[in-house]
Amino acid sequence: MTAELSLAPESSPLSRFGRVKGYFAKRKKRYLSAFVVLAHTAGALTSIEAIMETRTSQGAIAWALSLNLFPYGAVPAYWVFGHSELQGYVVARRSSAADFQYVSDKLRNALTERELRSEIEKPMGKMLEKLAGLSFTRGNEAELLIDGEATFNSIFEAIDAAQSYVLVQFYIVKDDELGRKLKDKLIAKTTTGVKVYFLYDEIGSLSLGSGYVRELRDAGVQIHAFSTSRRDGRKFQLNFRNHRKIVVVDGKTGFTGGFNVGNEYVSQHATLGAWRDTHLRIRGPGAAMLQVPFGEDWYWATGTVLNELSWTPSASESGADVSALCLPTGPADKMESCALFFLSAINSAERRIWIASPYFVPDEQIISALQLAALRGVDVRLLIPEQPDNKLVYFSAYSYLKDVQGTDIKIYRYNQGFMHQKVVLMDDDFSSVGSANFDNRSFRLNFEITMAIKNRDFAGKVATMLEEDFKRSRLMTQEELDQKPFHFRLASRVSRLLAPLQ
């Protein structure tokens, strides 16, 4: 008897299942095709917005390429990070600063009346004063604070000695051992009648729990998040972060530099290990000048002016006579003040320019300035970390080796932990410590603070510190990039293309 292969009738359950499966497969394919078309259309349209609105041609090119080649991730990233609503923000922020202007004028007038203005003869000094909208001050005492233990011991000591008020501002604040120690110090001062004003960035401190804030507020600390949103409800998304780190006590003692508040900043990070950073303590009129950017940020965040602060500066009680300038920079400045600061330091250098930064992602004008400085015989050294906390930045740095080849520019990679300091040393008498990194975000998008010091003794201490850092570093060479595998060299070049977005 011959067996015949029989197909299931069309009405069988198996056949119906096959037809249903095929139907959904076709719909899925149509939906996928529609999504691809929609994504690339959105990418193309958004790239037009990026070309029209992005502040630099490099940034516009980077966004246009990303939006058209990788729209699935680039489109949402642009509307979160790249779409700046810049003009609306600039108008709003400048209006806010103008409301606060009379306080700045009052402080400047007091400096003149008390003969605390320092006349800097070099053109760079005049230029920095115009960028800052503030004056170089004299009668300051400046102390270099190296690493976390020295920095936070000094900050906590100053808070303990506060008589009238304490101003605190950080980009990152964490509810960990160090963060709770700061909280306890501030709460203890409020019980003695000292007023405490606390600002933290809402994105940088995103992990900060409401309990931490509530405990401070319940104790009488006036604490607010710095947001790019207006009080009228308008949003300006995730750009324009407040990256400043400021502590001022009684208008007489001030601190600024690279440190935020978290255990990693005292070398307790699980993977980065030892944390190399630098802060600055200043006593005298320079401390009072730090109140200006804090006051502007406070007014933006709260709508109130801190009239109760001491806006009458006085010279340091130690008798020191260091010249110092407080240079606040940000995206609402009339010029790209932060980038111009670095450019002026590089272009003005006659003997040396040493720059330490955890992020080395300069634009073409900065690279050209470094090349010219080296070609005219200036000792150009750049100090960056060996161990990265950002892969894009890590790969980008290698791409600049070709630019410095043949110019005697030296790039050192610090390899004794993670290096986070932001320090500049120019010649034998000019240096700066602050929060600004050597990248596009600090140059154009973040609110930063830099304290520039014109003093030979202080510059000598900075030089000694950096020389020790160079000993703990290795010198990069072009050959090491050539010896890397192709995928590494490709990642380096692609990361360089995305430099304006980093």
Description of the molecule:
The protein contains 17 helices and 19 strands. The longest helix has 41 residues. It has three domains: 58 residues; 219 residues, Endonuclease Chain A (Endonuclease, Chain A, 2-Layer Sandwich); 165 residues, Endonuclease Chain A (Endonuclease, Chain A, 2-Layer Sandwich), CATH 3.30.870.10. It is globular and about 90 Å long. The strands form three sheets. A 15-stranded mixed sheet has the order 4-3-2-5-6-8-1-9-18-16-15-10-12-13-19, sandwiched between helices. A two-stranded parallel ribbon has the order 7-14. The chain is of the alpha/beta class and 502 residues long. One of its GO terms (molecular function) is cardiolipin synthase activity. Keywords: Cell membrane, Lipid biosynthesis, Lipid metabolism, Membrane, Phospholipid biosynthesis, Phospholipid metabolism, Repeat, Transferase, Transmembrane, Transmembrane helix. Pfam families: PLDc_2.
Q: What characterizes the major β-sheet?
A: 15 strands, mixed
Helix content range of the residues, please? 40-55%
Number of helices: 17
CATH architect. name of the largest domain: 2-Layer Sandwich
Segments where pLDDT lies below 50 for 5+ residues? 1-8, 231-236
Count of domains = 3
> Which CATH C-level class of the largest domain is it?
Alpha Beta
| Strand order, sheet with most strands | 4-3-2-5-6-8-1-9-18-16-15-10-12-13-19
Oligomer: single chain
Spatial gap, N to C terminus: 77 Å
CATH superfamily of the largest domain: Endonuclease Chain A
Give me the count of strands: 19
Radius of gyration: 27 Å
Domain PLD phosphodiesterase: 238-265, 415-442
InterPro entries: Cardiolipin_synthase, PLD-like_dom, PLipase_D/transphosphatidylase
EC number: 2.7.8.-
GO biological process, one term: cardiolipin biosynthetic process
